[in-house]
Amino acid sequence: MLSLFSYIAPPSRCGYLPQQQWSLEYECVEEMTPAEYEARMQAGWRRFGRMLFHPRCSACRSCRSLRVLAGRFTPDRSQRRAWKANTDVEVRIGPPSVSRAKLGLYDRFHAYRAQTRGWPLHPAKDADSYVDSFVNNPFPILEWCYYLDRRLIAVGYSDLLPQSLSAIYCFYEPDLSHRSLGTYNVLRLLNYAREHDLPYVYLGYYVEGCQSMAYKPRFQPNQILDETGHWKDFLSR
Predict the structure, then answer these.
(1) How far from the centroid of its chain's Cα atoms is residue 127's Cα?
(2) Which is it for strands 12-13 and 142-148: parallel, antiparallel or unpaired?
(3) Three-class SS of residue 94?
């Protein structure tokens, strides 16, 4: 691994629980193998682009890494409905790239989340910032593109690691929210993991009380990383 720099950000308003303050430790990497990142992730780190991060909050321990046991996963009723509702969707898996269709879809999704979830508004995503976020990675990743009648309706990104898939991000067409495309993307990851004998699908941090993360523990059975650094069974049907 080739690390460029690291730092701990000063406390600021938490992006998950607005009533709390958060502080994150960051490390920017130029080079990193999938195995090296998987070891970091098992210890509670996450990645976005070339930036690794994990919480260093002094007064809160609400951020808990969550992973799903792919081989034992069983969908609940709503997840089965989401799978059935998208049988007409074409899925293409390949290396990440940028396009006008993806940029427009990303901006529409974030505007929708700003209206419905109170996410902060950001300027329109340009090609360079999109590349920094999703294309310029320290190792190859998977891009999941979902099409309905040849129209791009959702995009997901995931890390393919020696023993797992790690969900990075997913965005979709707001006017198709009834299709539960975010849920469908996770179901696709779990299906891929089973087919390729990968034991885990990591869904990032779970923060109880954060609406945007409420979907994560519904994928069961799952485990969380406790404060002692051990993975513990969390929820199971």
Answers:
(1) 20
(2) unpaired
(3) strand
Q: Is 2 exposed, middle or buried (0-12, 13-18, 19+ CB in 10 A)?
A: exposed
* 178 class by beta-carbon count within 10 Å (0-12 exposed, 13-18 middle, 19+ buried): exposed
Residues 6+ apart with CB under 8 A from 112: 174, 177
pTM score: 0.94
What's 128's domain CATH number?
3.40.630.30
CA nearest 106: which of 150, 152, 137? 152
Domain span holding position 101: 2-233
Q: Is 84 helix (H, G, I), strand (E, B) or coil?
A: helix
When divided into structural domains, the chain yields a total of 1
What pLDDT is attached to residue 102? 96
- DSSP-derived pairing of the beta strands 200-206 and 12-13: unpaired
Instruction: Give pLDDT tens digits for 45-59.
Output: 999 999 999 999 988
**Under 8 Å CB-to-CB from 152, ≥6 apart: which residues?**
101, 102, 105, 145, 146
Task: Name which of 148, 135, 142 is nearest 196 in CA terms.
Answer: 142
CA distance 58 to 14: 12
Task: Show the tokens assigned to 104.
Answer: 């427009």
Measured CA to CA, the distance from residue 86 to residue 140 in angstroms comes to 27
